Amino acid sequence: xxxIRNVSKRFKKGWYALKNxxxxxxxxxxxxxxxxxxxxxxxxxxxxxxxxFPDEGEVAVAGFLSSTIKEEEIPFLxxxxxxxxxxxxxxxxxxxxxxxxxxxxxxxxxxxxMREKVMKxxxxxxxxxxxxxxxxxxxxGEQQKTAIARALVREPFILLAxxxxxxxxxxxxxxxxxxxxEVNTAGTAVLMAxxxxxxxxxxxxxxxxxxQGQIVKT
Amino acid sequence: xxxxxxxLIGLRRNGVMTFIxxxxxxxxxxxxxxxxxxxxxLFGIIRLAREKVEINAFLRENLPEKQIEELSEKLISxxxxxxxxYVSKEEALSKFQEEIKDAPSLIEAVKSNPLPAxxxxxxxxxxxxxxxxKEVSEKIKIFxxxxxxxxxxxxxxxxxxxxxxxxxxDILLGIVIGFASVFVISNTVxxxxxxxxxxxEVMKLVGATEKTIHAPFILxxxxxxxxxxxxSGGLLYLIYQVTSKFFVEFYFPHxxxxxxxxxFGITLGMIGSKLAVKSTSxxxxxxxxxx
Lengths: 218, 291
Description:
The structure holds 2 protein chains of 2 kinds. By secondary structure, chain A is of the alpha/beta class.
């Protein structure tokens, strides 16, 4: 589903954020991407959702190639990927329900079927009772769950999580990881970037360690 | 449908920003509308003044009636002449007596009629500049029947100078106000778009196409511009009503000023937001705290 072949990305002349990285993620995988701040985790994720493009090598995601994809095709790639961030990226002026529904509405969905999908996603993360609340009334963990529901409501084949527990207390973090594991069990691949190597070990998943833009352990 | 709802929700829930934006746009459009209104009235006044431009050609004594008739036909067919009016000796006298009726001794003094008959010649619209008035009056002078031809040379020259200065000032002011309102309105709309940068970011994140991203912002900008236009057009109309009731009746071209400010507001709101959302969306990279 995702193939990263010998990819390098330079940000400043001669300074590599990623160097000769190979990675492949298959359907249903759960993979931790570990490494310190600045090791290139986020760069790798951005290459997958094609916010940036590699200087060398190629990224292939769900049939789209980084070398040939057109700008107007990127939205269609993004519809097949769920993405969550450390800072949640929720809309402050929308309720929890609206934040999740927004993800479907922008692609032209509406009506009962959409409402059912939204409620299903909110139930999955355990937030259906807070659907009419605004994000600022929720805890960090609950906000991240909302972001997960928003990502899942479009039934992506993979969920990219960039430091999803970075702003959440330990208890909430475990909750989030648990949900991600459930999502994975239901068939969605998960790629989670985190600097917490311990966490990855504890969870016992596959992991890949990045150091200065290069993969050192898998 | 989604776009319209999104636009309205955005406007409502970002109330303060919407309020400020509409306020600023209202003020710019009001200034622009007031300027246009003033210009219309200025042109009206200039027109009235120009209508007062006329050439007076005084006739020799005792011309036969037939000759005067022939002369009037020749005058009316001259280039630039709008209308002519024959003033007989008697009419001239009675006009004069009317003018000096407060000085009866002067009337006493005027026993016989010393005033000559004359033609008052009005000129067409494009023929009231000093050069043209002079040219027409030179041509009239050629006719032997006239003793003198007058046209208030110094007055026309002064009018012309004033009109030219006003015209220049008006155009300069128009350019300044026009540019200022375009600048202010497009920047205001830009700020409202930037205030909702996160919305654009999320839309891109969940796979909205550029068209879907632009639509709500363009609609919101148009609504803001339209609202500001309606308000400024309304206020100008109110001012017109009040001034014409209590002071003077100004000329007020309703359609042009009211509909003009509304359309201008909508157009600027639309174009401003389109440009703002386009550049914001194009330059947008996802904000991430890490590499």
